[in-house]
Fold this protein.
Amino acid sequence: MRDRLLALLVGGTVAVIALYGVPRAYVLADLVEHQQEHEMQRVVDTMAAVLAVQEERDLPVARSSLEQALGEAESIVHVAADGTTTRAGDSFEPDDSDLVVTASVDGGGRLTLTRSGTVVEEGVADAIMPLVLLGVALLAASAVAALFLARRLSRPFQELAGVATALGQGRFHQDVPHYAVPEAEAIGTALRRSAAQLDALVQREREFAVNASHELLTPITGLNLQLEDLRHWPETAPAVAEELATALETIDRLGSTIQELLAQDRDTRRTGTLDVDLAALVRHVIADWRQTETGQRREVRFESSGTVPARVAPEELTELLEMLLDHAARHTPGVIVVDCAELDTHLRVRVGDADQPTAGSAATHRQLQGALPAGDDVEQGLEKAAELAEALGGYLVRDESGSSRFLLMLPRTAASAG
C-alpha cells in the first residue's frame, strides 16, 4: 500500500508539472523569441534612420558604423539604392533558426540584421532554466512529502494487519490504537469487537474443556454405579432389571460419546502445538516483553540450564507468560527472575521476585498438589492464566517460597522426554 501511495502521489505531481510546465515552456520560448525579434527590429530601425541621414548628406556608409550596433553572433547587410552592398559582423552558416529582421532606408536601400539561432536558443534556455529547476524542486519536495504521507497513511493499516495476524494466532488481548483516519478507526473498532467476541468464545471453550470431564462424566459415572447397584438388588424384579440393563447400555454409550467429543476437542486445540525449545521460547517472550512500556521500567533475569524440549502451542504459552510477567511487574519490587527447567515429571517455568528464597524440590512438588488460591490474584487476571495453563495440558500454582512467585508446570511429552 505504501508503494502504491508513493507512486500515486509522485505520479500525480509529475502529471501536474508536465501539464503546466510543458505548455509554459513553449509559451516562454515564444516570448523570448518575440522579445529578441522586437529588440532587433528597434536596432534596425535606428540604424536605418542614421543611414538615411548619411545618404542625405552624401556620406558613404562605413562598415565600422554598422558594427557599433551589432551584438554577439550577429551580422548586418546594407544594400544601397544603387546596389552597393556593405556587410559587417560575424559570419556564420545560415540556419532556419536564425532571426532575420529588415528595414527600408529612406531615399532607397535596405538594411538586414541577422542573429544566429544559437544565441536565440541560449536565450530560450536561460529563460526556461528557472522553470526546469522549479519543476525539479517541486518533484523532489513532492517525493519527500509523498514518502512521509505514504508512511503516515499506511502505518495504521500495517499495524492493523499485525493485530489481525495476532488475532488469527489466538492472541486476543491486543491493544488496538485509535486513529484519526476514519477508515482505519472503523477497522480498529471491528477488530476490537471481534477480539472481545473471540476471546469470550475461546474462554468458554477452555472452560468447557477443563470442566466437561468433571461436570459430565462424573455424574454419568455415579448414575451408572447407582443403576448397576439397583439392578442387582434382590428386591428388583427381573423385568425391571432387564430395563435397567438397557438403560446402563445407553448410559455407557452416552459416556463413550462424551469422551470421544472431549478427545476430539483436545485434538483440535492441540493442532497448533509445535516441538520447540521451551527455554528459547521463554527467552524470546522476555525479549519482546522488555519492549513494552511496563517491561522498559523493570529488570528481568532469565535462568536456564540449557535446552528444554517441549511440545506446546507457542501463541497460548506466549500470552500466558506475558500475563505472569505483568503480574510480577505489579507485585514484585525488585528484579524479576524467570527460570526454565526440566524436572522428572514436568517442565517448569518459574516467574517471580529474584529476592525471594527458592524452596527445595520436595516442598515444591507438595505445593503442586494444591489449587491456585482465589482472592485478589483472580482480579489480576490469574484465573485466566490458570485456564490457559490447563488448556496447555499443565497447571499454574503459587510457589511456596513467596506469594508473588508462580510456577507453570507443563507435561513432559515425547519431544521433552527424548
Notes: The first strand starts at residue 74 and ends at 79. The radius of gyration is 47 Å. The chain has three domains: 2-121, 182-269, 274-417. The domain at 274-417 is CATH 3.30.565.10 (Heat Shock Protein 90).
